[in-house]
Amino acid sequence: MVQKGMIILGIETSCDETAASLVSEEKKILSNVVSSQFKDHKPFGGVVPEIAARAHLDHIDFIVKKAFEEAQLTLDDIDGIAVAGGPGLIGGVIVGVMMAKGLALAKNLPFIPVNHLEAHALTLRLTNDISFPYLLLLISGGHCQFLIVEEVGTYIYLGGTLDDALGECLDKTARLLGYSSPGGPFLERLALKGNPEAFVFPRPLKGQEGCNFSFSGLKTAARKVIMENKGTTPSFQEDFSASFQEAIGEILKDRCQNAIEMALERKPDISTLAVSGGVAANRYFYECLTFCARNYEMTAVSPPLHLCTDNGAMIAWAGIERLKKNYVGSLSFAPRPRWPLEDLKLGKGD
Ligand code: KG4
Ligand code: ZN
């Protein structure tokens, strides 16, 4: 008889997406249901934690049920339940964790709390055939950091943002132009038609040692340009976006070059640059990073667009990687608003 690989349910509720997915050990995404709260938060210009928590509570039952229906499976067919246990907006994380604990308890299944950042870090092993160790640039709405992914549960922090995350900088800037969050995709679309030389922006930390980022100065410069030039020419928004993205692309290339050198010094066998998190969906930034990787004969990889942003499949896959190593959590796990990846205790879910 052919041995069937395990199947895990992944639940994600740490920000503004209620998501559930069933994934198999053979890297098959059997279902992947994502419900965005985009419309709930739109009137407020950003994610409101209390609204997010209530919306997760309203939708979670339906989303989990739908994930099973789409996969044509039941709770009796799965081998464990993984959930984003943090970091994130605590009200939402609590909703997902309670749901996962309840199901695990009722069906006597392993309960696997997953660090949301670890899930972004490991998604590349679900979508691409890459092996450890690899260099990861995690760029999302709340995080911006370079890490060496050494093994499941073992991450070496190389550098990260000293102030804002890149996604946050994009979202806040897009809001000044009148676009609601997430603003990154709007800027990317506008930039396609703009002149990247129309405006000059600073490139904070460019040319300096290490691979930290700083985006607050760039954000302030962008605000100034918008205030001074808004509505002056019909193509202002396009030209602004193209110039703004060009500055960020240059920053990414400069920081990435240093990160690659730092990573190779520690682990000379690294040959992959993985780019993950919502901002990795930006094709221009990804091209800049690919260019940089090629200079070091490294391959750049990023998940397909729908797996760059938050989803349940990445949680389920991280659950599979953890369960394979027997890194299971206990039902006393406490949801975590903060949970730095480099603090992950190897082998322990809580
Ligand atoms: O990973 P994610 O879905 O949520 C967090 O964990 O933060 O990332 C969301 C971020 C937002 O800041 C959004 O503007 C950005 O990803 N984003 C993009 C694009 N698509 C999403 N940024 C630039 N270009 C895009 N195409
Ligand atoms: Zn995320």
Secondary structure blueprint with pairings:
Elements (H helix, E strand, L loop, with lengths): L6 E6 L4 E8 L4 E8 L1 H4 L7 H23 L8 E7 L3 H18 L3 E5 H12 L6 E6 L4 E8 L2 E7 L5 H11 L7 H8 L24 H14 L6 H31 L5 E5 L6 H12 L4 E3 L3 H4 L3 H13 L26
Parallel strand pairs: 1-4, 4-5, 6-9, 9-10
Antiparallel strand pairs: 1-2, 2-3, 6-7, 7-8
The site of 5'-O-[(R)-(carboxyoxy)(hydroxy)phosphoryl]adenosine has 19 residues, from helix 5 and helix 6.
Query: What topology, given as strand order, has the largest sheet?
Result: 3-2-1-4-5
CATH superfamily of the largest domain: ATPase, nucleotide binding domain
What integer value in Å does the Rg equal?
20 Å
Low-confidence stretches: none
- As for the CATH topology of the largest domain, it is Nucleotidyltransferase, domain 5
**Are any ligands bound, and if so which?**
5'-O-[(R)-(carboxyoxy)(hydroxy)phosphoryl]adenosine, zinc ion
Count of distinct strands: 10
Average pLDDT figure = 94
Structural class: alpha/beta
Shape summary: globular
Rounded to the nearest angstrom, the distance between the terminal CA atoms is 36 Å
Fraction of residues in helix: 40-55%
CATH architecture of the largest domain: 2-Layer Sandwich
The number of helical runs is 11
Q: Main sheet, how many strands, which sense, barrel?
A: 5 strands, mixed
| Integer tally of domains | 2
